[in-house]
Amino acid sequence: MKPKVICHMMSSVDGRLMPYRYSLPLNGKSHDDLINQYVALSEQLNGDASLIGRPTLQAMYFKDTFDHKDYPPTDETETFIAKPDKTNTYIVLDPNGKILYDNTGDNNYISILSEKVSKEYLQHLKEKQVSYLFAGHDGNNLKRALDVLADDFGFKTILLEGGGIINGLFLKAGLIDELSLFICPSLDGLSGVPAIFEYKGEIDELPAQGQSLELTSIKQLENDVVWLCYKFHLTKKFRRHNFHYIS
Asked: What are the residues whose beta carbons fall under 8 Å from the beta carbon of 237, sequence distance 6 or more?
């Protein structure tokens, strides 16, 4: 059985995801104050790990990219579980094995890979004590990845924390169980700024089709923040597929 997936996001009133672009609250609190409030709320959700996209992790911690040169694809597809010696765990969808890990700091890392990565990259992950698993040949089988995270890593609840593209993939695949929205009293307003869900499909695609939301709670928090929680329900029209993550 796959772990529960809670999409937990901080957004402006217009659904944008870049907090340092937000207008500031009336009470004068800073962007950092709002981010710290969001992080504190994340801890209340008791997730076993946070699942994010490769660009999000590189923006936060690791700027450099691994050079695969002309190395052939690996013929080893066994899951590797490093010793979890840190408090926080990040799961990163990185099918092409782009992240060059340096000092892993205060976090454990689990990389979701395709079978196209090189043996040399797997050795790099082992040396850095970064766990990894394979999500099919192209790294797009998200359901399989979740099953491994439940069965091999023992995770019961995972917080899906963006960015918008990976959120859109999980939405389209019908793998989100709950939605937790931390809505700041702020606006962005610029067209094209990433939003909560950013599925990269055709103009006639409806990535949320076959899914309905049930409001389970609404709370006003300090700093005029509103916290909305929803439960996802799949309807009879829903069909599950795998979708490509361009990373």
From this structure: 209, 210
161 shares its domain with 43: yes
CATH number for the domain spanning 246: value is: 3.40.430.10
Q: Total structural domains in the chain? A: 2
More confident residue, 26 or 1: 26
Q: Using pLDDT thresholds of 50, 70 and 90, give the confidence band for residue 239.
A: low
Q: H or E segment at 214?
A: strand 211-220
Report pLDDT digits (tens) over 10-48: 999 999 999 999 999 999 899 999 999 999 999 999 999
What dihedral angle (degrees, nearest 10) is formed by the CA atoms of 195, 198, 204, 207?
Answer: -110
Question: Considering just the CA atoms, what is the radius of gyration of the chain in Å?
Answer: 18
* Domain coverage including residue 171: 1-48+156-247
Q: What is the pTM of this model?
A: 0.91
CB 80 within 8 A of CB 123: no
